[in-house]
């Protein structure tokens, strides 16, 4: 790799900067995270470092005022990465870490811990693996851990949009509804697994666990309230094996080097 970089730099001297910036595969991808909600949220970024060590060039968490956006570069080989939003956070209180927010909070507080800072459900999660199997980017909007904010993933090269663009809180089935903010407004809607509706998380058709741990033994028909999520957000990933819906997990040819925009409250 070192040799390659050297060779490239020698050639590069003759090329204007603008052309260099357009060369695919050189500078990674540009991601933008836009808060179109009319309230403050706290976006968070997590990379499963057991899958790959490349990480985005951005903090693992920040405060996003209404209408604000943050743009950053992401390596072409980002694997098993996720971005989500946290609601109603207060990092000054006596509860640093996961309980600083009504939902989506993480170990670490404002900055999510790089090793353990995944979000507390319920949380809508945008997921990526760039340059995965078959030289494809994989991405989705996951409701597997429930819902806490509407979001959409758009891209610069005309691949499909993944989204859950509607507020699933107000009409959420009551066993799943919540948590609630100080106005008693539901800022989340749990999945049947997260809500532990069947009381047996170790062996549950809602969680695809135990004897239900494969796609064949965990059909969507066995997941309680699946249709609430899939009917309202058909282009999201609504339970652990939702690939079969054909509108859950999206791909984009990696050679197109797509840039991605994640919009909260699109
Ligand atoms: C945000 O918009 C919603 C729906 O239009 C409205 O009910 C709510 O009062 C607004 N909130 C703020 C903080 O402006
Ligand atoms: C991706 O795009 C490249 C370049 O256009 C092409 O050679 C390749 O066949 C495409 N791969 C797929 C899976 O479509």
Features:
266 residues; five-stranded mixed β-sheet; five-stranded antiparallel β-sheet; signal; Thaumatin; mainly beta; disulfide bond; 10 strands; Thaumatin-like protein; single chain; Osmotin/thaumatin-like_sf; binds 2-acetamido-2-deoxy-beta-D-glucopyranose; globular
Task: Provide a descriptive summary of the structure in words.
With 266 residues, the protein is mainly beta. The chain has one domain (2-167, 244-264): Thaumatin (Sandwich), CATH 2.60.110. Helices cover 9% and strands 21% of the residues. The protein has helices at residues 2-12, 17-22, 226-232, and strands spanning 29-35, 42-47, 69-74, 81-86, 125-132, 136-142, 151-155, 162-164, 250-253, 260-264. It is globular, with a radius of gyration of 19 Å. The termini are far apart. Bound molecules: 2-acetamido-2-deoxy-beta-D-glucopyranose (2 copies). One 2-acetamido-2-deoxy-beta-D-glucopyranose binds at residues 134, 253, 255. One 2-acetamido-2-deoxy-beta-D-glucopyranose binds next to loops.
Low-confidence stretches: 1-21
| Strand order, largest beta sheet | 3-1-10-7-8
Strand content: 15-25%
Q: Kindly report how far apart the N and C termini lie.
A: 40 Å
Q: Percent of residues in helical segments?
A: under 10%
The CATH superfamily label reads Thaumatin
Alpha carbon gyration radius: 19 Å
Rough outline: globular
Averaged pLDDT, please? 91
CATH class division: Mainly Beta
Order of helices and strands: HHEEEEEEEEHEE
Present as ligands are: 2-acetamido-2-deoxy-beta-D-glucopyranose
- CATH third-level topology: Thaumatin
CATH architecture: Sandwich
Strands, count: 10
Structural class: mainly beta
Helical segment tally? 3
How would you sum up the major sheet?
A: 5 strands, mixed
How many domains make up the 3D coordinates? 1
């Amino acid at each position: 790799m070192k040799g390659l970089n050297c060779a490239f730099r020698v050639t590069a001297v003759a090329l204007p900067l603008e052309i260099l910036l357009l060369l695919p595969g050189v500078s990674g991808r540009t991601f933008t995270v836009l808060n179109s909600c009319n309230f403050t949220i706290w976006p968070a970024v997590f990379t499963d470092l057991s899958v790959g060590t490349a990480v985005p060039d951005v903090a693992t968490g920040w405060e996003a005022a209404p209408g604000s956006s943050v743009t950053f570069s992401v390596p072409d080989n980002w694997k098993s990465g996720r971005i989500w939003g946290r609601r109603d956070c207060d990092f000054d209180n006596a509860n640093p870490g996961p309980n600083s927010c009504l939902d989506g909070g993480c170990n670490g507080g404002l900055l999510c811990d790089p090793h353990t800072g995944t979000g507390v459900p319920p949380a809508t999660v945008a997921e990526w693996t760039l340059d995965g199997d078959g030289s494809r980017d994989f991405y989705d909007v996951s409701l597997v851990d429930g819902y806490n904010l509407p979001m959409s993933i758009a891209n610069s090269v005309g691949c499909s949009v993944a989204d859950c663009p509607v507020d699933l809180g107000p009409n959420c089935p009551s066993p799943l509804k919540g948590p609630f903010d100080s106005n008693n407004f539901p800022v989340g809607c749990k999945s049947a697994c997260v809500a532990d509706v069947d009381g047996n998380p170790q062996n549950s058709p809602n969680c695809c666990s135990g004897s239900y741990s494969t796609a064949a033994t965990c059909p969507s028909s066995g997941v309680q309230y699946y249709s609430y999520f899939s009917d309202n957000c058909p282009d999201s990933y609504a339970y652990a094996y939702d690939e079969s819906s054909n509108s859950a997990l999206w791909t984009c040819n990696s050679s197109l080097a797509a840039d991605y925009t994640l919009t909260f409250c699109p």
